[in-house]
Specification:
Chain A is built from 8 helices and 2 strands. Chain A has 171 residues and is mainly alpha-helical. The longest helix of chain B has 16 residues, at 5-20. The radius of gyration of chain B is 18 Å and the shape is globular. The chains are: A mainly alpha (171), B mainly alpha (153). At the A-B interface, helix 1, helix 5, helix 6, helix 7 and helix 8 of A face helix 1, helix 4, helix 6, helix 7 and helix 8 of B.
Chain lengths: 171, 153
């Protein structure tokens, strides 16, 4: 269950555009390429997909480039992932029932569909604006450290875990 | 973001064992293979991983086979997925920060880590017992927003 490079690069590209179109000036792919280290050709491919999904808007001309077509609050990580690699789909039979003989009587398919739905919800719950805000990133780091490890099968129920020690916080 | 065949087959195998170990008798892989259509060799590979994760227990002998090592209510899809294909790891830098030079200051990495954690939670939220209960499946059906159906022939 990996997030493909294409989706990760698209997120990086969107973050770069989000960070640099402050004065309302479009951001050129040449400058995005320079800052992110992603090749110009790759960025152009991504731009096509992101434009088709109406997440960015191209402006032609000498000072042309791309702008976010919505405020970053209204663009989620899920929107970017879907625009570039398609809807979340943990198993093929969800989008294409013909791909498996068992579809009609499969007890797993319903649960896969729900898992799919919940994963898509998770991806929709983080926005570009969140990620552009350095304070939010700090908060997230804190939240991460406070997460208890998920129990393994047959482990004692939650509530018996010792409090986390807060060490190793980077300054 | 696909769930690998290995993980899906392991889930099918666990369901078959859970559905057939009534009266405490172990379930042989030969029978699991017959019912699921998964090859015996593949099932043996999966059994090794599932046994190592203490999700099933082998019983040797003429009527030997496998049991669930824990009640079906306590075995989640997440446990089976982790036992067979490893922990959910959306991006490599989460397991190994050395794979990316940006790891230390990357604004995406904490978000990936959170998304990862939430996905692992989602996988933990369904158990084998849920899948074995037709009423439960029926009620879950109500939560699914839309699902393409088989075209009538």
């Amino acid at each position: 269950m990996k997030l493909s490079t294409r989706a990760r690069y698209a997120l990086r590209m969107m973050l770069d555009i989000g960070n640099h179109d402050e004065n309302g000036r479009p951001v050129s792919l040449a400058s995005v390429s320079k800052r992110t280290g992603l090749s110009r050709g790759y960025l152009e491919q991504l731009a096509l997909a992101l434009r088709n999904a109406s997440l960015i808007r191209g402006i032609s001309g000498r000072y042309g480039g791309y702008r976010l077509s919505r405020p970053p609050e209204a663009i989620s990580v899920g929107d970017i992932v879907e625009a570039t690699i398609g809807p979340v789909n943990v198993v093929d039979c969800l989008a294409d029932p013909e791909s498996c003989m068992k579809v009609a009587d499969c007890e797993c398919r319903m649960v896969y569909a729900l898992i799919n739905q919940r994963i898509a919800e998770v991806l929709k719950s983080y926005s570009l604006a969140d990620m552009l805000n350095p304070k939010w990133s700090e908060t997230m780091r804190g939240e991460l450290e406070s997460l208890a490890p998920l129990p393994s099968a047959g482990a004692p129920p939650p509530g018996t875990t010792p409090p986390s020690s807060g060490e190793g916080t980077p300054s | 973001m696909k769930l690998s065949t290995r993980a899906r087959y392991a889930l099918r195998m666990m369901l078959d064992i859970a559905g057939h170990e009534d009266r405490g008798r172990p379930v042989s892989l030969a029978l699991v293979s017959e019912r699921t259509g998964i090859s015996r060799g593949y099932l043996e590979q999966l059994a090794l991983a599932l046994r190592n994760a203490r999700l099933i227990r082998g019983v040797a002998g003429r009527h030997g086979g496998y049991h669930l090592a824990q009640p079906a209510e306590e075995i989640s899809i997440g446990h089976i997925v982790e036992a067979t294909i490893g922990p959910v790891c959306l991006v490599d830098c989460l397991e190994d920060p050395q794979t990316c030079i940006r790891s230390l200051y990357c604004e995406c990495r904490p978000v990936y880590a959170l998304i990862n954690y939430r996905i692992a939670e989602v996988l933990r939220s369904f158990t084998l017992a849920d899948l074995l209960d037709p009423d439960r499946i029926q009620s879950l059906r109500g939560e699914v927003q839309e699902l393409p159906r088989l075209m009538p022939c």
